[in-house]
């Protein structure tokens, strides 16, 4: 809970300090983010450990201005990044911090999340120093998991 409050405060501070849309950071060619320990259709129990994989770029904490780096965000139970109600606009904005957008601005490469029984969708997104997806976005496939 403490991490979620910090992430929400950080995102709000960034959003106030930044214009409505910001220039996006270029992604290295061939960069990929993926789930190391989960695959589409798997059945798990809660809490769920999620291990993040990243190829073609490095992990750096939010706020770090270093080429070819970013930090992870876990999207839970929402449309794929760039689709749905927010659409393409969300690609040029800092990702929000809420129950559907979990930030790992400290450079973390795994987490454990409590999920209710039932089906859930997960997607990984790499954000730049300001929590904005790279250009082009570095995103995993959306996977569906079932929690018993």
Task: Give a written overview of the molecule.
There is one protein chain. The protein is mainly beta. The protein has a single domain, classed as Immunoglobulin-like, CATH 2.60.40.10. Helix content is 11%, strand content 32%. It has one helix spanning 2-17, and strands spanning 32-35, 43-44, 48-55, 58-59, 69-76, 101-104, 110-113, 118-127, 143-147. The strands form two sheets. Strands 2, 4, 5, 6, 8 and 9 form a six-stranded mixed beta sheet that branches. The chain has a three-stranded antiparallel beta sheet with strand order 1-3-7, with no helix packed on it. It is globular. Mean pLDDT is 88; it is low at 1-20.
Mind sketching the topology for me?
Layout: H1 2-17, E1 32-35, E2 43-44, E3 48-55, E4 58-59, E5 69-76, E6 101-104, E7 110-113, E8 118-127, E9 143-147
Parallel strand pairs: 2-9, 4-5
Antiparallel strand pairs: 1-3, 3-7, 5-6, 5-8, 8-9
Structure characteristics:
single chain, 148 residues, mainly beta, Immunoglobulin-like, six-stranded mixed β-sheet, disordered N terminus
